[in-house]
Amino acid sequence: xxxxxxxxxxxxxxxxxxxxxxxxxxxxxxxxxxxxxxxxxxxxxxxxxxxxxxxxxxxxxxxxxxxxxxxxxxxxxxxxxxxxxxxxxxxxxxxxxxxxxxxxxxxxxxxxxxxxxxxxxxxxxxxxxxxxxxxxxxxxxxxxxxxxxxx
Length: 151
What we know:
The chain is mainly alpha-helical. The protein has two domains: 6-85, Arc Repressor Mutant, subunit A, CATH 1.10.10.10; 90-150. The chain is 70% helix and 5% strand. It has helices at residues 6-21, 26-37, 44-51, 55-67, 90-115, 121-150, and strands at 42-43, 72-74, 83-85. Strands 1-3-2 form a three-stranded antiparallel β-sheet. It is elongated, with a radius of gyration of 20 Å.
């Protein structure tokens, strides 16, 4: 992989910090940032070397990014190692993951609401909490549709 320009290094670091602020490992964010700016397939080795991290860290965090739908593993015939690239539309994949988790949470929240007395303080708070997640869910669906249309 070519030497990174200063703006690329800054972007990779900003992406790492942003994803860390969202509760993900900083290295996962750094790998995601690297995938965003790379026009080539990236091997484990090139990711580790470029970011100056261990291959084990690359392995752990690329699996995480794959599970989020924002990294794609690619095998090349005759090659022993895997390569990674950014999927065609990783941004809708991120929101789809959030939307799926939100749907599951809303089902669990409904079970709790059905057991709570409707005149209780907890029920009122749970109802507001549910409204928040229902709004997030419906807006996520709209965002997914829009992202698929424009990207």
